[in-house]
Every structure is written in structure tokens, then in C-alpha cells.
Amino acid sequence: MITELADGEVFVFGSNAAGAHGGGAARVAYERFGAVWGQGHGLQGRSYAIDTMSGWDALVADVRAFLVFAEEHRELTFLLTPVGTGIAGWDAADVAPLFAGAPDNVLLPEAFATVLGV
């Protein structure tokens, strides 16, 4: 698990819509990288929340919004955790394709890179 960030790096984690960052990567984001309790989506501090707990359609929508944000903020490097594959229960084989074609400032976790063959 990432514990420190270099300048310009953003920790991307899976959240719930309520922004209750109580465990896993969400807790790390809250304790170390400025995630805001009660904010379940988007940029907050040096972290970015993707809602993985409100169903597939919400996950897809949040991933799309994230990819647009990443494209618009090429000055930042986004360190993507394997969102959705922890407590949310999705398989990397299902989630990884949502990140196919992500801008090169999005660093994929190994599990997603393996699925995508990159």
C-alpha cells in the first residue's frame, strides 16, 4: 500500500457514496492524503475518490468522470489502487477494462495492468 506521495501525485481509491472512509485504501486516503469524511467522490486533498459501493452503474460513471479529470489535469500523476476489488467485491477482470485507454498520467495497479496486457 502506498504510504507517501511525491509532489504532483494523487492517491486514487475506492469509496462509498457517503464518504465513510473507514477501511482499506479509503482509510489510508483519509489518514494520510486528505480525503474528506463525508465526501465520496472526486478530488480531496491529495486523493481522489471513486464510488465503488453503489453498484456497477455508479462505478462506471465515477470511473468515466475520473478519466476526464485525469485528462484535464495532465500536470498530476494519479496512482490508482485496484478500486472495486476489495470490499466492493468486483473482480479485476471486470473493473480493469473500465480503465483501458486511460491517459498516461494514470498509473494502473499491477492487477489491472495484467488484465489489460500493458
How far apart, in Å, are the first and last alpha carbons? Answer: 21 Å
> Which topology does CATH recognise?
Leucine Aminopeptidase, subunit E, domain 1
The shape is globular
The H-and-E topology, N to C, reads as EHEEHEHEH
Q: Which radius of gyration do the C-alpha atoms yield? A: 13 Å
Supply the CATH architecture.
3-Layer(aba) Sandwich
Q: How many beta-strand runs?
A: 5
Largest β sheet strand count, sense and barrel closure: 5 strands, mixed
Instruction: Find the structural class using helix and strand composition.
Output: alpha/beta
Task: Tell me the number of structural domains.
Answer: 1
The CATH class is identified as: Alpha Beta
CATH homologous superfamily, by name?
A: Leucine Aminopeptidase, subunit E, domain 1
**Multimerization state:** single chain
Tally of helical runs: 4
Spatial order of the strands forming the largest sheet: 2-3-1-4-5
What labels would you give this structure?
single chain; 118 residues; alpha/beta; Leucine Aminopeptidase, subunit E, domain 1; globular
Descriptive notes:
- This protein has a single domain, classed as Leucine Aminopeptidase, subunit E, domain 1, CATH 3.40.220.10.
- Helix content is 31%, strand content 18%.
- It has four helices and five strands.
- It has a five-stranded mixed sheet, with helices on both faces.
- The protein starts with 8 loop residues before the first strand and ends with a helix.
